[in-house]
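Appendix C: a fully annotated inverse folding record. The material below is reproduced so that readers can follow the format used throughout the book. The structure is listed first as tokens, followed by the designed sequence.
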């Protein structure tokens, strides 16, 4: 499916997932500096032009308040990205769409969100998610999701089905080819990344 062009004025609530334990990183990767700025602040600033609001989802409320970022705690702790997505749609409400990404994504471009939003506006009525899909599978941590997914997410978590790839296979997902430059995006899992 192809979108009908980009609405450069479109804005969406942005949620940055930063609830992980950063085991491989060795310290809080959301706070790790990139050119002197904490990664989560840098990402929030980069997405500000497309954001109706920016909220960080972390392991507890207020974790990044000292950085000037609204932060909500996971409503179901330690469930990984699917738990973060549940928290995001719960925080935003059942009727709207949210954009979700991970705090360790480096190199993403705000205009790619407009690509997702354009696809969302032309999506089938039952569509609840729009994400990029590469040869490796869905890219769930750069996607737009509808708030009506809350009950499905809760069920998946209650049944300990935590894989985002499997979740996106179960729901009506619009998957599109990644944009030029996507191959340059880095997930910063170690300080050397």
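Designed amino acids, in order:
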């Amino acid at each position: 499916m192809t979108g009908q062009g980009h609405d450069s004025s479109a804005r969406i609530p942005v949620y940055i997932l930063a609830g992980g334990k950063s085991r491989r990183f060795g310290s809080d990767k959301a706070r790790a500096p990139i050119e002197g700025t904490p990664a989560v602040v840098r990402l929030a600033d980069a997405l500000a032009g497309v954001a109706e609001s920016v909220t960080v989802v972390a392991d507890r409320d207020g974790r990044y308040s000292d950085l000037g970022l609204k932060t909500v705690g996971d409503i179901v702790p330690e469930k990984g990205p699917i738990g973060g997505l549940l928290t995001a749609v719960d925080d935003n409400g059942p009727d709207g769409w949210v954009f979700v990404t991970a705090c360790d994504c480096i190199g993403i471009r705000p205009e790619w969100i407009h690509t997702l939003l354009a696809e969302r506006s032309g999506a089938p009525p039952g569509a609840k998610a729009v994400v990029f899909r590469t040869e490796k599978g869905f890219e769930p941590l750069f996607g737009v999701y509808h708030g009506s997914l809350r009950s499905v997410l809760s069920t998946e978590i209650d049944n300990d089905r935590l894989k985002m790839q499997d979740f996106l296979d179960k729901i009506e997902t619009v998957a599109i080819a990644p944009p030029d430059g996507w191959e340059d995006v880095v997930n910063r899992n170690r300080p050397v990344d």
